[in-house]
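Response to reviewer comment R2.3. The reviewers asked that we include at least one raw input/output pair. We reproduce the pair for GOLD domain-containing protein here without editing.
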Amino acid sequence: MLAVSLLIIVLLFIRVSGGFLITVDAHETSCFFDHAQEHDKITISFEVMEGGFKDIGVHITAPNDDRLHHSDKESLGSYTFTAIRDGDYTLCFDNEISTLTPKVVVFQFHVARPLHYYANPNERHDDVLEHAGVQSMINELGAKFGTVKQEQEYMHYRYNGHKAVSESAQFRFVLWSIFTPSLIVIMTIVEVYYLKRFFEVKRVV
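Raw output as returned:
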């Protein structure tokens, strides 16, 4: 019962906590944004799962296009920072350097309000949570849930990939197992027929 209650609290009070699996095509840039208030804690983590050398350009910007992070090639990373002002914070994955290969990326974009927001009723305008320490534990639990979810999505994606490779290899093995004996039988029949014709004595009437 306690676990169910904690889960409901997390779902109700964690502002943003989600993992996403996307495909960024060659010569394409995909951007995502979320609104944050000043002093909010923003956590961004990502990993390139598939495609080429498993690297991609990563750009994080604050409102007014202030650059927070810029990298042309990264395979995975995790960044946490405090919002410097109210507004939309943007995360972009840039695959412009790739000529043909799309990139599969798993990422998480998490925004959590500071502790004093929940401790001060005048700021939060509600009466749901009375103790700031509880909110701190909820934020920590929500972050761990997000990490577990991302790991599960990663393992599920890897499982599907390995399963597809295994099934493809098995199918080719079965085809080759059928083709090889069939080829030997056909070659044997042809050789027997050829030798029979070669040694056949033709009678002249």
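The chain has one domain: 2-159. Confidence is low (pLDDT under 50) at residues 1-18. Further pairs are available on request from the corresponding author.
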